[in-house]
Recover the amino acids of this structure.
């Protein structure tokens, strides 16, 4: 029977001629114009990356391999009695663009079990780090520390062949995805639960096992499945995806590339915003003695934050121009499982006031909430209150998107990335200054 790797090989062989033809016959065709604002302003909107893993429409939000989040959740096989799909089946889908059968999904579940053993030295390194080390630093360091296991690096050293380089990238990526939940849960238990580590359970899938290793009962397994899937990918231009892609373009292996991508995710304007949201809410709650602020009071807190020169975490986006569907899917989860939770009420009240205020302030191009505005509420509700851990959860999910991307980067032989810089003098000359 065909394995996921066989299926991926088939897909890659069918896809390669498309990329080759575009380059050979249509390489000079213009797909966009770059302005001075785009040069200085972080390359916003410059169409210069290619990925088939996901596409972000500014008004519709993310589609993974052509499907919206609700479509993905409906299409993929789910563990019995659960509301959200197997993460393993989602990995199959991201890599191949095909919805796996239940059997194909269960094969990946088995494969992950075989691959998930984390070397002891990783745990030793984590234990040796200072107690106040941020969990994202620990997570990125753990990934990097396993680089000596890279099959891609070994393949490169033993004689590189561009046509089959994707295979060892796939091997490293799958090893990493199988191991990351174990590493993440270890960091959590080491840092916040006195090192009382819970071993994985062979009877559980990735989502179930993560909940088990974290020590959080059902339905946290479904929270984990949903969370990892919705955070997986947001096309290639965001900081974590682009960094991973950039580093991998130098033929660095998946360990180097993912570790670098996670470092980008750890920035407060990117993945760290989910912890910032909770910390901001806690701050306001403390000022209100735990009481839900009225709309007027909430408006004042939001304006105070803006007037002190800070951003409202969880709001705004470089591409999106509407409420993030990742926000909406988490909101639906909250409406079903925790409709009366005080922090959910708080986040909902923020939704009532922030967009109008950001519009009035007139700076943010997108006044609507992004994924991070809602995600901490669910974690908090299920007892995960150490909010500086939240970005690690984002990282476990994001790994799937960025690793699927760099596997395909190698399959299609994308070259080393090297945009061109200009000097300010040159820009002034172009501008006629
Ligand atoms: N609160 C206050 N001001 C905001 C804002 C917000 N939530 N979002 C944007 N702005 C401001 C920007 O800081 C910028 O101000 P300056 O002109 O003074 O520099 C101005 O509005 C224009 O920014 P923009 O073009 O609308 O947004 P960018 O593409 O530059 O930045 C993002 C996008 C996400 C970094 C920004 O909206 C932000 O800082 N949001 C808060 C942090 C956050 O939630 N990040 C998570 C993003 C989701 C993810 O990681 O995927």
């Amino acid at each position: 029977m065909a394995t996921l790797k066989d299926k991926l090989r088939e897909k890659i062989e069918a896809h390669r001629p498309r990329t080759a033809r575009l380059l050979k016959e249509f390489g000079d065709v213009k797909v966009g114009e770059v302005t001075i604002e785009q040069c200085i302003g972080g390359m916003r909107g410059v169409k210069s990356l290619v990925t088939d893993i996901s596409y972000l429409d500014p008004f519709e939000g993310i589609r993974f391999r052509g499907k919206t989040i609700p479509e993905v959740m409906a299409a993929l096989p789910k563990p019995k009695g659960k509301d959200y799909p197997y993460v393993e089946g989602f990995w199959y889908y991201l890599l191949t663009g095909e919805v796996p059968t239940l059997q194909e999904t269960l094969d990946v579940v088995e494969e992950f079990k075989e691959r998930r053993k984390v070397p002891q030295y990783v745990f030793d390194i984590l234990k040796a780090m200072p107690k106040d080390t941020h969990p994202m630093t620990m997570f990125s360091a753990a990934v990097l520390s396993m680089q000596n296991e890279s099959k891609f690096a070994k393949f490169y050293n033993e004689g590189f062949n561009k046509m089959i380089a994707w295979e060892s990238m796939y091997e490293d990526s799958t090893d990493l995805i199988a191991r990351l939940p174990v590493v993440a849960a270890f960091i959590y238990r080491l840092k916040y639960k006195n090192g009382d580590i819970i071993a994985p359970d062979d009877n559980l899938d990735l989502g179930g096992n993560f909940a088990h290793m974290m020590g959080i009962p059902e339905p946290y397994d479904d929270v984990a499945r949903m969370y990892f899937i919705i955070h997986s990918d947001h096309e290639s231009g965001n900081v974590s995806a682009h960094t991973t892609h950039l580093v991998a373009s130098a033929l660095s292996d998946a360990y180097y590339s993912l570790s670098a991508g996670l470092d980008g995710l750890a920035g407060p304007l990117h993945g760290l915003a989910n912890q910032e949201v909770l910390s901001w809410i806690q701050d306001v709650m403390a000022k209100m003695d735990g009481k839900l602020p009225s709309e007027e009071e909430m408006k004042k807190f939001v304006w105070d934050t803006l007037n002190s020169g800070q951003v409202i975490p969880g709001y705004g986006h470089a591409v999106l121009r509407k409420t993030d569907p990742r926000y909406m899917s988490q909101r639906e989860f909250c409406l079903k499982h925790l409709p009366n939770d005080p922090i959910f009420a708080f986040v909902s009240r923020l939704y009532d006031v922030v967009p109008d205020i950001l519009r009035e302030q007139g700076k943010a191009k997108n006044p609507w909430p992004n994924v991070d505005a809602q995600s901490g509420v669910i974690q908090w509700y299920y007892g995960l209150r150490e909010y500086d851990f939240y970005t690690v959860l984002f990282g476990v999910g994001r790994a799937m998107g960025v690793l699927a991307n760099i596997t395909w980067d190698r399959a299609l032989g994308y070259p080393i990335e090297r945009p061109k810089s200009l000097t300010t003098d040159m820009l002034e000359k172009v501008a006629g200054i």
Observations:
- The longest helix spans residues 165-192.
- The chain is about 60% helix and 0% strand.
- Residues 273-381 form a domain with the Cytochrome p450-Terp; domain 2 fold (CATH 1.10.230.10).
- The beta strands are 54-57, 61-64.
